[in-house]
Amino acid sequence: MVSAQVKIINPQGMHMRPAQLFVTKMSAFPCDVTIVFKGTAINAKSIMHLMAACMKQGSEIEVQCNGEQEEAALAAAVELIESGLGDC
Amino acid sequence: MRIVDLLSAEKIALHTPAVADKAAMIDFLVDLQDKGGCLSDKAGYKEAILAREAQTSTAIEMGIAVPHAKSDCVKAPSLAACTLTQGVDYGAMDGQPSDLFFMIAAPMDGDLHLEILSHLMVLLMDPSFTAELRGAADAAAFMAVIDRYETAKFGAPEKPETAQEPAPAAAAKSGPRIVAITACPTGIAHTYMAAEALEKKGKELGIAVKVETQGSGGAKNVLTAEEIANCDGVIIAADKEVELSRFDGKPVLRVPVSEGIHKPEELIHEAPQAPIYHHTGEKTESVTNESFGRKLYKQLMNGVSHMLPFVIGGGILMALAFLLDDPSIDYANFGMNTPVAAWLKSMGNVAFNFMLPILAGFIAMSIADRPGLMVGFAGGAIAVSGATFSSPTGTAVSAGFLGALIAGFAAGYLMLALRKVCDKLPKALEGIKPILIYPVVGLALIGLFMCLINPIVGLINTAIYSGLESMGEGSKIVLGIVLAGMMAIDMGGPFNKAAYVFGTSTLAAVSASEGSDVMAAVMMGGMVPPLAIACATFFFRNRFTNEERKSGIVSFIMGLCFITEGAIPFAAADPLRVLPACIVGSGVAGALSMAFGCALPAPHGGIFVFPVMTNVVGYLIALAVGTAVGTILLGLLKKKKS
After folding, report:
1. Cβ A48–B111 below 8 Å, yes or no?
2. pLDDT computed for residue B555 by the predictor
3. Closest Cα to residue B454, out of B364, B373, B385?
4. How many structural domains is chain A composed of?
5. Is the CB of residue B102 less than 8 Å from the CB of residue B66?
6. Of B184, B48, B197, B20, which is closest to residue B113 (Cα–Cα)?
7. Which of A4-18, B107-121, B165-179 has the highest mean pLDDT?
8. How far is B62 from chain A, CA to nearest CA, in Å?
9. Is the dihedral of CA A68, A74, A79, A80 positive or negative?
10. What are the pLDDT digits (tens) for B397-410?
11. What crossing angle do the helices spanning B616-637 and B517-539 adopt, rounded to 10°?
């Protein structure tokens, strides 16, 4: 398993469009993708789970990838979040 | 923010028959959303929704779609909900048709949007929740399901009575749900504290509360007839008479202003269940369910509050007269020596001369409504003149403040009795009662009464003053302790006012140039509590909350201006520890003020009247020592905040 700490930077946080984008990108990888936020592990391939977590701008999260192509998945996830999840 | 609060029955469409396509679905949902009245521009909102859908579909998974838009066309956050008997292709990623829709309308400001989405998602993840929603028979059942799951996931609603039975009509009404009026006798501090407490609590509870303040500067944030008509309940938190005719037919909860400060939550909940108020045109009859003592206090306060501007205006002008005068010209005539001083003092005197008639007049008006005013006013003036049967033009011995109090209450109750008697008169005489019978008979009655009372009250009054005057040094100090301590006991309540009115009344008994040592001790008692608390917030920071520390400086300024009310927020938060400290501090300061022979010629003014004081150095020492004692006691008594 690989993991990385990232900060949500887009002003509106993890709302629906970023969540959709994130799930779409992550679904391309066969590994499990999990986000740990406020001590809770969230299935990062579910739009509803992502939105339910209420991650706002400035929230510190940990992305964990486990399984096939985990390195690539993690790199993609980090890049996506750090680029503002398509919002900016 | 609760999801059920954003929904209302008219924005829920259940078991809607099949819809042709996504475009038709959006039209349908926007229409539904618009029924709640939260959109300022329906077409603009639809555009925003379409623009959002053009980016990616808002259909999530499991047949659920959450079309949403954050837009300037939205006035207030709102939800609309819809279930379809047959799903429509809404472009979901999993390819499933969507049959459960929550449409969100969010205004541009704030990140409420994200929170609504988040809460909704937490609920929607539970398959039994969505199953129950899809099976709900009607809008009420639909909302009940949401409420039940929301309560389970996010805790109980803060206002169960409205959340569990969402009344569609109530939710659709706009404007404040609860309206309130706050008013206190002085109209400087309590009025606004109560208003702030009510509005703050209303915000916390998610209940729109609008508060009209009837302070010394007149009514602010005035309630409109429409707001009153649409509200669920009315709170009157007042220690003086408030005009209630406009609340006819509404549930009106009447409480002392202090309850507005201490129990805003209870009041907001109780107001809609309060008895319906029916205006009868007679204020006295509307004052029901109150103890006799409380009625008396309110009537007294009605007089005191109207009198206070006369005392302050006159007192400060007179104080300025002393400040600008040169005592060396003629000490016996101090305050009238220079033309400027003489003018100021004369103007001040004009206001002072109205003091007691105003007190008596408004006490009587509070009891007997308008017919009482003239009778009370005249009674007060007779009390001032000290008229008796033997010398009807007046005597040297004024019945003073005590006489005016008696005149006010006597006039009020005499007029009530007179009205009762006049009820027996033929109907034809109805029209001449207020313009002939009440004034003429009333004036004659109060004249007779006061000429009987005046000799007695004059004797008592003189006895008190001469008693005070003849008190030795030791008992003067006791008097200083008692009066200053009284000022700190309830900070604006009856003890405080009794001491204060007593203090102002002694101003009339002493020559203006020397001032009153009693008044000095009284003012001391009123200045120490806010000052001591302000110092304590500085020296014992860990005894106070962050908010309290920030308001310390305001309390300090209010203390310097002799506005004791500045101490109230602190005292209210921790009365058993704050009040004893303030009382002891005030008492010590009052005793020292007396011991040093400090005297004050003005009834109000705090540091602004220090220049006209006798022995101001001693007064400053007394003030500093009293404040220090109060501060240290606060530090010792108050517990550390974790």
Report:
1. no
2. 79
3. B385
4. 1
5. yes
6. B48
7. A4-18
8. 10
9. positive
10. 666 666 788 899 99
11. 40
Single-letter residue type at B304 = V
Q: How far apart are CA B551 and CA B199, in angstroms?
A: 19
d(CA B178, CA B536): 37
By CB atoms closer than 10 A (0-12, 13-18, 19+), residue B293 is: exposed
Report pLDDT digits (tens) over B519-532: 899 999 999 999 99
Q: For residue A73, is it within any domain? A: yes
Strand order in the sheet with A2-7: A2-7, A60-66, A32-37, A40-43
- In 3D, which of B199, B218, B200 has the Cα closest to residue B210? B199
CA distance B611 to B274: 52
Whole-Å CA distances, B394 to A34, B104, B389, B399, B405: 94, 78, 9, 10, 18
Average pLDDT (B603-617) is 80
If one counts every other C-beta atom within 10 angstroms of the C-beta of residue A58, the result is: 10
Q: Is residue A87 part of a domain?
A: no
Percentages (nearest 5) of helix, strand, coil residues in chain B: 65, 10, 25
B178: helix, coil or strand? Answer: strand
d(CA B626, CA B637): 16
Residue A76 lies in domain: 2-82
d(CA B220, CA B21) in angstroms, rounded, equals 54
Classified by CATH at the fold level, domain B3-170 comes out as Mannitol-specific EII; Chain A (3.40.930)
Mean pLDDT of B234-262: 85
Tokens of A88: 């900016």
User: Is A28 contained in some domain?
Assistant: yes
Bridge partner residues of A35 (DSSP): A42, A63
Helix (H) or strand (E) holding B253: strand B252-255
Q: B68 catalytic, yes or no?
A: yes
Domain B3-170 matches domain B173-286 at the CATH topology level: no
The catalytic position among A12, A15, A17, A75 is A15
CATH T-level fold of B173-286: Rossmann fold (3.40.50)
Predicted ipTM > 0.90: no
Name the strand (E) or helix (H) holding B98: strand B98-106
C-alpha–C-alpha distance, residues B79 and B101, integer Å: 10
Which residue in B has a C-alpha nearest to residue A53's C-alpha? B118
Cβ-defined contact of B56 to A23 (cutoff 8 Å): no
Tokens describing residue B632: 């240290």
**Residues of B at the A interface (Cβ-Cβ below 8 Å)?**
52, 55-56, 58, 60-61, 64, 66, 68, 93, 111, 113-115, 117-119, 121-122, 124-125
In sequence order, what are the beta bridge partners of B251? B276
Considering only residues A53 and B284, tell me which one the structure prediction assigns the higher pLDDT. Answer: A53
* Residue A57's CATH number: 3.30.1340.10
Q: For B52-94, what is each residue's pLDDT tens digit?
A: 888 878 888 788 888 888 888 888 888 999 998 888 888 887 7
Q: Are B98 and B31 in contact (CB under 8 A)?
A: no
- Tokens in use for B413? 């109750």
Question: For chain B, what are the domain ranges?
Answer: 3-170, 173-286, 293-470, 473-637
Determine which helix (DSSP H) or strand (DSSP E) holds B215, and give its type and residue range. strand B209-215
DSSP string, B471-496: --HHHHHHHHHHHHHHHHHHSSSHHH
Using only the alpha carbons of chain A, give its radius of gyration. Answer: 11
- Asked whether the beta carbons of residue A48 and residue B117 sit closer than 8 angstroms, the reply is no
User: Residue with structure tokens 């408030």?
Assistant: B242
The answer to whether B117 contacts A56, with C-beta atoms less than 8 Å apart, is no
CA atoms within 13 Å, Cβ hemisphere of B200 = 11
Q: For residues B631 and B618, what is the distance between their CA atoms, to the nearest angstrom?
A: 20
pLDDT band at B620 (very low <50, low <70, confident <90, very high): very high
